[in-house]
Amino acid sequence: MYRYILKPILFRFVPEKAHNITVGLFKTLLSIPGGAWITRKMFGYESKNSSVTIDGLTFPNPVGLAAGFDKDGKYYHDMSKLGFGFVEIGTVTPLPQGGNPQPRLFRVPADKGIINRMGFNNDGVDAMVERIKKFGKPDNCILGGNIGKNKVTPNEKAVDDYIICFEKLYDLVDYFVVNVSSPNTPGLRELQDKKPLSIILNALTKRNKDKKPLFLKIAPDLTEGQLNDIIELVEETGITGLIATNTTISREGLATKTAKIESIGNGGLSGAPLTNRATEVIKYLHDKSNGAFPIIGVGGICNGQDAVDKIKAGASLVQIYSGLIYSGPELVKESKKAIAAM
Ligand SMILES: Cc1cc2nc3c(=O)[nH]c(=O)nc-3n(C[C@H](O)[C@H](O)[C@H](O)COP(=O)(O)O)c2cc1C
After folding, report:
1. Ligand 1 center–CA 124 separation, angstroms
2. Cα angle vertex 9, ends 8, 14, to 5°?
3. What are the residue ranges of helices labelled H in the chain?
4. Which of 3, 232, 241, 253 is 20 to 30 A (C-alpha) from 192?
5. 182 in catalytic set
6. Going by C-beta distance under 8 Å and a sequence separation of 6 or more, which residues neighbour residue 338?
7. Mind listing the pLDDT tens digit for each residue in 105-144?
8. C-alpha angle with apex 172: 166 to 175, nearest 5 degrees?
9. Which tens digits make up the pLDDT trace of 323-341?
């Protein structure tokens, strides 16, 4: 239904509007009598033994919603009904911020890609805290909190922003993700260097009294040397593992005309053009570390096989975002089925 009816309609709207329409329609469906039942019938699929336990936290199935879809914690209950085993909310920052001027989200349909330069638009961590307190955790679905820093915070003080978000959300989410890999906050990716990163990760592990799983999300554009540094850092700081990967700043190998890509401008590219690079990064991290820590694989999962490839490369769990835009919510079930059949 999504691919043949909804998608052609949604693609007539600018992407940010289409996103809002989609979540609005879904909310409406869930609120009408029988809506939740229809959703469960359409998207519900659980296989036996599909749960994955990491650091004592059991994910009911290995397919999650990636960060950025629900930046403010407004839709995680609804999205969990699509059968996700976990939903990651954020990236949230201490203070609310508007993000970059619109337009800042673009489709690249010939490549099944998305380019975004949203710039961490969000209502701030206090608003997120209030929402989670009000609506609670979703049933049978793990809730992750992806945290970042405000644009106005200089990198030398970034650690304070991560600590604020970590402490305010501590009792409300099941796991945390430190995001230093978005290309849309100037200078943020410099925090992926060993020194600043160890300051942030050590500060958070010190405050992690209940030993909640703590992941670091990395960019696909890191060199082998930088990936080696990150592996060392996981071992030195004792964080749980990595999320690989965020969006890429590369524009290599696209079918879309260069002029069109140039007219879009800066931003992170996701979706199908990222599939192979993200899988390559996962495999490198897994092989080089001898599988010493869990990896959440994300980047360009557009069908069940892509999800299987991420698991085969060494991921314990996978996440989806852009694939939902092109393939629709059926992708969640398709990915779960494909992984279960491995
Ligand atoms: C519109 C958009 C906004 C995003 N916002 C965030 C974000 O706030 N934090 C984050 O860690 N990742 C963010 N991402 C990256 C995704 O979580 C994911 O890592 C990336 O898109 C690759 O997966 P995909 O190809 O399945 O989309 C965003 C992606 C998109 C498309």
Report:
1. 18
2. 100
3. 7-10, 15-31, 35-43, 76-80, 125-135, 158-169, 194-207, 224-237, 258-264, 275-288, 304-313, 322-327, 330-340
4. 253
5. yes
6. 303, 304, 305, 307, 308
7. 999 999 999 999 999 999 999 999 999 999 999 999 999 9
8. 60
9. 999 999 999 999 999 999 9
Tell me the two tokens of residue 214.
């703590």
Atom of ligand 1 nearest to the CA of 71: 8
Q: Whose CA is nearest to atom 15 of ligand 1?
A: 246
Domains of the chain: 47-340 (3.20.20.70)
State in Å: Cα 32 to ligand 1 middle: 30
Q: Please work out whether the CB of residue 18 comes within 6 Å of at least one atom of ligand 1.
A: no
Ligand 1 test: best mutation among 88, 321, 331, most atoms within 8 Å of CB?
321
pLDDT of residue 3: 86
What is the chain's mean pLDDT, rounded? 96
Residue 42: is it exposed, middle or buried by C-beta count within 10 angstroms (0-12/13-18/19+)? middle
Question: pLDDT tens for residues 304-314?
Answer: 999 999 999 99
Q: Is the CB of 132 under 6 A from ligand 1?
A: no
**234, amino acid identity:** V
Given 80, 181, 182, 316, the catalytic residue: 182
| Tokens of residue 334, six digits | 């398709």
Lowest mean pLDDT among 27-31, 68-72, 220-224: 27-31
Give the global pTM.
0.98
Asked if residue 243 has its Cβ within 6 Å of ligand 1, the reply is: no
DSSP 101: P
Name residue 133's amino acid: K
Contacts of 189 (CB under 8 A, 6+ apart): 180, 181, 182, 183, 219, 221
Which structure tokens are listed for 42? 């359409």
Which of 114, 247, 295, 306 has most ligand 1 atoms within 8 Å of its beta carbon, as the pocket-test mutant? Answer: 247
Neighbours of 22 (CB within 10 A): 21
Q: Kindly indicate the confidence band of residue 4, based on its pLDDT and cuts at 50, 70 and 90.
A: confident
